[in-house]
Specification:
Shape: globular
Helix content: 25-40%
Number of helices: 3
Oligomer: single chain
Distance between the termini: 24 Å
Strand content: 25-35%
Order of helices and strands: HEEHEH
Number of strands: 3
Largest sheet: 3 strands, antiparallel
């Protein structure tokens, strides 16, 4: 059960283009902070943070 609880805390990033169209999904990250740091390091400026189970777990 603890692993299920841990998985629910994972997040992913839905990367969007300048018009808001989804272009990629990156996940999982252990926290929203880690996801935002990844986006910053990769120059991704337009994105949405999603629960990883929605994002699909691809990284």
């Amino acid at each position: 059960m603890a692993s299920a609880d841990h998985r629910s805390l994972l997040v992913g990033i839905l990367v969007l283009d300048d018009t808001g169209v989804p272009i990629d999904v990156v996940s999982p990250f252990g926290s929203e902070t880690a996801a935002r740091q990844w986006a910053d390091q990769h120059g991704v400026t337009t994105y949405q943070i999603l629960p990883a189970w929605i994002a699909g777990g691809r990284r």
